[in-house]
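Archive entry: two folds, one per protein. Generate the first.
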Amino acid sequence: MKRTPKLGKLGSKLSKGKLGSSLSTVGAMRPGAVPLSIEFGVSGIKVLQLTGSNPSSIVSAAFMPTPDDLLDNPAKRLLFQMDALPKFLKGEKINATRATSLIPSGQMVCKHLQIIPSDDVPIEQIAGAQLSSQLGCAPGELLVRCRPVKGANANGKLEVICFAASREFVGRIMGSLKNTKMEVVGIHTEFDALAQAMHLRNDGGSEGGVVKPTLILDLGCGSTKVLIMHGQDMVFARSIELGSRHLDEAICHQLRCTMVEAREVRFGLSELVPSTVGAGAVSVGETGMPGMPPPAEELNHPQDLSDEPAVAPTSFTRGPQIDLSESLEILGDEISMCLRYHNALFPSLRVERVVFVGGQACHQPVCEHIARSLKLDAQVLDPMACLARSGRVPTSGVDLRSAQPGWATVVGGALSPMDL
């Protein structure tokens, strides 16, 4: 009986058209050409071109935002982005003959496995057999990459981080890039690209020769990627399906507004969780609704009134207060579970700091809240600031004068080796 693949999220809409391709059809690389790094993100398409020199310099950067009505529909969003990419690059006058692309995290499975290695069978084949049984698809329908975790306490087994994606979907990404008349020279996961971008940090994750585990949180629009690194080595990776869009949905329900208005409100928030009522204010359970006069029996006891001025009604916050405590608590619990898994693998190494990247990392209250709940030292990484610039850089949709932590993965993709 023929088995129906269940991994892809694009449905039958992508089964038609001219995007089909295979990994064996990649053409020869043209020497000297600078590859273009492309990311099909939830918020939009990011395109970055760097020089191959050391340090790398920014040649061009462009961003095309996703229409608001497609943010909650991954299939239509990816179709729109794949169709719009050739016209977008032509309009921005970006000339490139080679390109690398990232597999969107929503179309990829990231899972830790403990396997028994064999000399005759590659670990990708062993991991692919386990993942295919869990996903309910044939092993040949998956493209699997494994990252062994060095020094992990796995009870005699090999701890590996497995990344799996639909072979058909990866072929469609390559086909969409070929429609732009470019040769595909690299397909990377967002986690590998993120790890590559972390190499731009000066300390390299170690101090005095001692490895310092670092937690990297990519706060994106549709998800949050969790990555733990020991120096240059990746030891943990996971994708949490909770991003800034979910915070906007909470605001939308509380204020009865549109998602666009909720996004604007979120950017203007200085407090994500309502502060507790001050000591001078009375609680609702004691005197009824805020702003209402006290009960009559309290007015009959003037000896209870002090000489201090009465609390003005303005001590109560006017208008509805935004409360994102539930979403942030869920996110904090999921990250804490990741840290506990890391502690089980490495009992003697504890994470002491967190590095924030991603578009949501520009919102300081979110980073402060997460770092405070995790009790870790925190910093925000701007990978674009770590790159050289020769004169005026042609850009579109991105302001290089301000911090751009959301460009970490596309920068890492541009710095990643060409693996095809």
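Generate the second and append.
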Amino acid sequence: MKAAVVQASGQAPVFADFAVPVAEAGEQHMRVLASALSPLTRGRAAGTHYSSSSLFPFVAGVDGVGQLDDGRRVYFLLPRAPFGGMAEETVAPEDHCLPLPEGLDDMTAAAIANPGMSSWAALTERARFKAGESVLINGATGASGQLAVQIAKHKGARRIVATGRDRETLAALQALGADAIIPLSEDADALEAAFREEFAKGIDVVLDYLWGMSAERLLIAGAKSSADGVPLRFIQIGNASGANISLPGAVLRSSAIELMGSGIGSVPLGRLIAAIGAMLEAAVAGGFSLATETMPLADLDRGWNAGDRRRIVFIPNG
């Protein structure tokens, strides 16, 4: 079969032949209908993500939409290595396969499942979000952040604040539910002042996809603005702006900030899968969407090297 094959660490996958998978006990075999290119897929292929494998060759792609041998459509997550989502066929554990709701098409499901899971799990599993609370999404112009705005709105957020560098996308988020936007700048003091203005209006939860300087200033602003004993739940999800921050210890001592992470490891895999299922069930009613470009898997090179303005979804048999 044809697949996106990673031959060695640090190498981009190539469109090549790979062994046809055969399901083992407790697994499902499927024909892949769609598989999205996500930061997790890129990170695992490059060997830079903490969950990367050191066994080569393997097929790229951590998830997708497939058709089981009995004809049912499912979303699948984490196929058995060395198989992956970006292939004509794959195999995955039965409990990693979720039936797709009626009305949710293959391309949308493949595009939103992974980024939507990150914000759904962060809100429900880590922040224990309740309708009526306010949310600040740091890094809302990426795929996960855009869906976080939509999901927070769907789940009844009283107020949503979105930050980002892409001003065009940031402005468009207001139509998706953002009540206020903060363009990220290099001026740390000005950025902290903008954050403090929003904290003064009440922020219960921060979803952080960036880390780096903006996260530092968010935590400092949150500490300076918080009322005595009133917790701010700061959920760290991604580090697009840097792997490390410099945080004064007084920020945590002088406030009721609850700082925690959300992702593979901090949330049990079974709960992450359940979060995906719940998010996909809500997707039709919530109208969750992303700007998406579909292309045949044979165009792997073009898609892999494309920018991030649109989410790439590969069609293996397209």
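Annotation attached to the second fold: The chain has a mean pLDDT of 93. The domain at 116-261 is CATH 3.40.50.720 (Rossmann fold).
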